Prior knowledge:
By secondary structure, the chain is of the alpha+beta class. It starts with 23 loop residues before the first strand and ends with a helix. The chain is built from 26 helices and 29 strands. Helix 1 packs across helix 2, helix 14 packs antiparallel against helix 15 and helix 18 packs antiparallel against helix 19.
Amino acid sequence: MALTGLMATVSAPALAVGQLPGNVTPTRYDITIDPNAQAKTFTGRETITVLVKPKTKTITLNAADLKITRATIDGKPARIAFDTAKQQVTLTPATALKPGAHTLGFVWSGKINDTAAGFFAIDYKNPDGTAERMLATQFEAPDARRFAPMFDEPAFKAKFKLSAVAPAKQLAYSNMPATVSRLTDGRQLFSFAETPVMSSYLLFFGMGDVERKTVMAGKTEIGIITRRGVVDQGDYALASAKRLLTYYNDYFGQPYPLPKLDMIAGPGSSQFFGAMENWGAIFYFEPTVLYDPKRATVSGKQGIFITVAHEMAHQWFGDLVTMRWWDDLWLNEGFASWMENKASGDLNPEWFARETAISQDREGAMGADSTAATHPIIRKVETVDQIGEAFDGITYQKGQAVIGMIESTLGADAFRAGIRRYMAKYKYGNTETDQLWTELEATSSMPVKGFAHDFTLQGGVPLIAVSGAQCSGGSTSVTLTQSRFGLDAASKVPQRWQVPLTIATLGGAPTKTLVKQDAPYTVSIAGCGPVIANLGKGSYVRVQYDDAAHAVLVRDYAKLSVADRLGTLGDDFALAASGDQSLARYFDLVGAVTPDANPLEWDSVADDIGGLSGLYAQTDLEAPLRARTIKLLAPVMARVGFAAQADEAPIVTNLRETLVTRLGLAGDPDVAAQARRYVTALATDPNAIPPAIRQPILTTYAVNATPAEWDALLSITKATNNPVAKNGYIRLLGTARDDALATRALDLVKASDFTAPQKAELLGAISGRHPDMAFDFAVANLDLVNGLLETSTRAGFIVALGSRSNNPAMPGKIQAFAEKNLPEASRGGAKRALTAIAVRKAAADRLRAATAAWLAGS
């Protein structure tokens, strides 16, 4: 039946909005799909075996954008009613169904989308310029229902038996291995083996003119699937996956249960995701899994390992054991984010993965968590748009930071033992967070719930003030006072945590304590000397020192561990932004960073100075900040050099990328001249730019481009058939500092032969430097822009375009847009955008005087 003339279906009041009743559960799907890639349509038929619990008169499941032409229950026609708002279809049999097993049958047709939601197409060019199309699916969070009628919620686990028709010379692939037979019309029928029980969002199907390469890891076949001609670029991912599979099999105590693990590389892009953990068939966009040694930077290569580590961790956390509902999404994403860094650090210690997470992921989490737009890690999810909003920095970055804190508190062995118990007990099932805490308490004999609840059931960042250190008799007493760190008034509302904290004097034996109260609390620690609170930065907390304690940390900065140096830099900069202390303190600490310091320290400083530059873009401080950036970072750049040295440490190579980028954005004439020379050479040699600096050189060129240079970049873009390179060039076209060039880039969004995802990426890039132009364009061309977006991003994409604006009128425009176009429950993105603008303005006001004083002293 076509989705017209709909009858409403009403759920019981106790259910979350759109959530299915639990009276019927699926046990097995048998689905056959026949795609028409050229027409971007498909037909399907399926049989769902269900278990009816109490006697029932109706069965409700999910369907969206499907034209259902036949529905049966136990082989007999059933009456169909649709609720498009809830994306549900209800079947009513002639007589009520008795408890027990029954079968549902459906026949339908659907569409293959241009963007990554449900069943979608990826269009690209072959090296000879001919057009090609790959098909893939993206079902997380609520889009399996666009592929087939399903009980499309994570708790409704079932087995899936998928079959698909494909053209004679193409390959189809899914979660399980397939047998292939030839149809009478010459096409192929791929019959995939039945999956273990799993959630619907983990089902995957893909098809195209592709190549597949494999390696064995024990009894598991690991594969890479790519467009033709680039399968060898998957060798690094294959080798990484083999190492990681051995590591994870041991860590989780449960061997990977599927016979194969494919990594599918798609040559497109998404506004929502870079990779997806479909069980046994992980989908990646090419830059996140293919390593091209002629083009990829070292950080890009590391990014491949980290992304593969993240998605493979999901094969346990998320796939084998799945959260019951999206409220507990962090059980998937927080743990995968934590495991990506743990595995990367253990297997590649020269990367300083944990320290990098302190300066990047930890700071990202606390930045999001210290504003009015924060929310608990475990959040209430009631609508489809809210599911999409849950995939944010709180879920991922704060989630991983809190997990790291718990491991640090319990000890690595006790923590891993609890994870193994959890995996063994709940494999193939669904859980809520407290079930994990129970298993960790069992192996550690510690009250995990007591402090873990404080960090997962409420938003916000605790702040520990350290004061009054006094040494006597070989030990130091110090006073700790708890409060709340916040960048705006809402995030400073008093709140209390039980904060696990490790504190020590420099070189002394550490003391572990639990700071529970907000009243001053005195602790005695071994030794005399500089006091370091949150030693190793294992806990999720900001630390503020009194003048005396901070002064000795500056004095002995070089003696601190790398983790403590990075964490102290991060805390000092954030405490200045919040108004809790002067920015001068941060600059004092920066003065202690020597030219030969760990490259991660200069990475951190460069990022912070870049943040200051962003605060004062298009103000009277912009030019002097750019000049001071050059003065500060150019000597470090001279020491590192443009050319990578043989066998240099990865963190040195990564610092070079950061320095070229920051100096290029600041308009450093030497870096800009280098960029122009390199890009000019691309006309005769597409690999003219050394891989180690390719991306920052291109960024420098694009940001500082003249009209003639922008035209040259556009010509390169149009002439490029490599889909990854082309997507990168398209984004660069939106980064020019010049307003007139931003206008020309907007014209490309409206009228060009770029794909829908490419146009969306271009518009997002324009918003980075021209947020007002991008937002106004999107509002004026709303239907066009919505047509470029994935369904999961529509509620947040346009409002986010204006979030970097310093225009006093922008908050009112975002609010007006949200009220006119977004339901109340879908305005989380608008709230975040408005909060970001307000927080940035407040920080700019607080830091202006100290920044001006620093610039005057240069």
